[in-house]
Structure prediction request, 65 residues.
Amino acid sequence: MNKIETKILKAVETNKLNLEIIGERNWYNYFIRVTQLVWSRNFHDGYLIEVYDERYGNHLASITL
Prediction:
């Protein structure tokens, strides 16, 4: 796990990053996109968090919870 993924997971655990707010937004020095995952069969529902560099728009990480 890289530093960004660790930071995101810790923020979710401490409720500094609210996953109930779906969509795109700026978060600290990152641009994040939170998408709710809803499966039709045999998988648990969750969230996909995509992290981008705020300045240049480079994709940094994708995290599935």
Remarks:
- The mean pLDDT is 86.
